[in-house]
Amino acid sequence: MIHITMDIDWAPEAVIEDTLSLFESHGVCCTLFATHASRVLSELNSDLFEVGLHPNFNPLLGGGGGDITSIIRSLRELYPGAKGIRSHSLTQSTPVLDLFAKEGMLYDANQFMPYQRNLQPFRLWNGMIRVPFNWEDDVHMMYGKSFADLGLKLEDDQLFVLNFHPVHVYLNTETLARYEQAKVHYQDAGQLLGYRNRSEVPGTRDALLQVLEFIRSGKHRSTTLKNWMHEWQAEN
Predict the structure, then answer these.
(1) Structural contact between residues 52 and 31, judged by C-beta atoms closer than 8 angstroms
(2) In degrees, to the nearest 5, what angle opens at C-alpha 141 toward C-alphas 143 and 217?
(3) Closest Cα partner for 51 from 59, 60, 63, 43?
(4) What is the distance between the alpha carbons of residues 192 and 195, in angstroms, rounded to a whole number?
(5) Is the Cβ–Cβ distance between 13 and 44 less than 8 Å?
(6) Nearest CA-CA partner of 31 in 218, 163, 123, 173
(7) Residues with Cβ within 8 Å of residue 223, at least 6 apart in sequence
(8) What Å distances lie between residue 69 and 72, 76, 97, 110, 196, CA to CA?
(9) Which of 197, 221, 207 is CA-nearest to residue 151?
(10) Crossing angle of helices 68-78/94-102, nearest 10°?
(11) Half-sphere exposure of residue 69, counting CA atoms within 13 Å on the CB side?
């Protein structure tokens, strides 16, 4: 089973739309973790897409104003149907996980295990389910790996939970150097397009398309994390 997730990370509407069009054209599901108000995310086809929360607690670590609960609730007001959560930068702690449960989250997706096999969800002490993931586009770049090989044997009968970012899909980022050059134009989709990787070196977009084709071929089942967690609860 392959599940694809996406951390929105304040991407502009055109960049989000571009990425989601790839899922729509392949008929593949995706779970999107939202950072902000977005018309595109509010009008999604719920048969293909789920919107979870992607709160940013990092300013609090530097002594900024606000509190964890208010940050979660402000996002929940935008996406009241959200049942899943993954913190920006994976910021978490035991008290934070308890707050997630208190705010009605069904599952948490903060456990990152790069390239690991034999993933399994598990239940936390507070009743939430923890969903690990084993691949992420920017971390793949940090390892200095080529997008010609994701470092996972997708043909195996295993659980894979992959995480992408719309900006890297849009740029077809193959190295962090490309992103660093482009990010000054982060909110301008037209300017970003000029930085897209169009070379023969495979990038993030190429990798995503490869995975989508693999899923569409019927070799793996895919659904949203929320639907999968409902199934998992019924069996466990």
Answers:
(1) yes
(2) 110
(3) 43
(4) 5
(5) no
(6) 163
(7) 3, 29, 231
(8) 5, 10, 11, 17, 38
(9) 207
(10) 40
(11) 6
Side-chain half-sphere CA neighbours of 149 within 13 A: 7
Query: Quick one: which of 200, 198, 166, 199 has its CA closest to 183?
Result: 166
| pLDDT interval class at 220 (50, 70, 90) | confident
Count, residues in the chain: 236
- Which pLDDT tens digit goes with each residue over 33-68? 999 999 999 999 999 999 999 999 988 887 667 789
Write out the two tokens for 132.
Answer: 């690990």
219-to-4, 49, 84, 134 alpha-carbon distances in Å: 15, 20, 26, 19
Instruction: Determine how many CB atoms are found less than 10 A away from the CB of residue 27.
Output: 12
- How far is residue 104's CA from residue 82's CA, in Å, rounded to a whole number? 9
Question: How far apart are the C-alpha atoms of 64 and 49, rounded to whole Å?
Answer: 33
**Tens digit of each residue's pLDDT (9 = 90 or more) over 158-169:** 999 999 999 999
pLDDT digits (tens, 9 = 90+) for 174-202: 999 999 999 999 999 999 999 999 999 99
Average pLDDT, the chain: 95
